[in-house]
Amino acid sequence: ESHDQRLLESKLEITPKPTNLRWIQDAFGNHVAIARFAGRAEALRFDSTIRLDHSPADIVDMDIEDFARAYPFTYDAGDRPDLVRFIERQSLDPHHQLDQWVHSFLRKGGSTNTRALLVDLTRTIKQTFTYVARHEKGIQHPLLTLKLGSGSCRDLAMLMIEAVRSLGMAARFVSGYLHV
Question: pLDDT exceeding 90 applies to what percent of the chain?
């Protein structure tokens, strides 16, 4: 649950039935089920169904810490050790193509409003990139997504993550649910 969603119903069916099922909350606030089994099986199936009340907040209503309202900004020294792995680039950009693309969103000759930057970047990805279902495993390289102008939802998410990381902002991939 969070400020914009409330869990109404949850069901987890596991086949074969575990001998022990324990729920914990990890360091990021995710609820995690740990299942233990008595023996081997030919197949393992997890069927998780949830029902949510989701009332998304508009990003303009979300608060940004004072220090980060204008880009560029610097994270507090006490927070940097926890954020370093979320700032570090995961994909190579030897010719700085992604860097050049994301820098085109910055205001020339001064600071850029962080909220406006993130909204503009998000809207540009949504409006100019084509969503394509991709059933292959893994994530398409962000430079390929940029070149093709298309990708699956995970590809577009990684493009956004790598773009903001190239600006020194912390970002991480969070897998969620598909609204049906």
Answer: 70
Distance of CA 149 to the CA centre of its chain: 19
What 3-state DSSP class applies to 120? Answer: helix
Instruction: Give the C-alpha separation, 176 to 173, whole Å.
Output: 10
**DSSP-assigned states of every residue in 37-78:** -SS--S--EEEEEEEEEE-PPPGGGS---GGGSEES----TT
Provide CB contacts within 8 A for 70, sequence distance 6+.
Answer: 111, 112, 113, 114
Q: How many CB atoms lie within 10 A of CB 180?
A: 3
**Nearest in space to 38 (alpha carbons), one of 23, 18, 21:** 18
DSSP label at residue 94: T
pTM above 0.90, yes or no: no
CA distances from 159 to 128, 140, 141 (A): 13, 9, 8
46-83 burial: b if 16+ Cβ within 10 Å, else e: eeeeeeeeeeeeeeeeeeeeeeeebbebebeeeeeeee
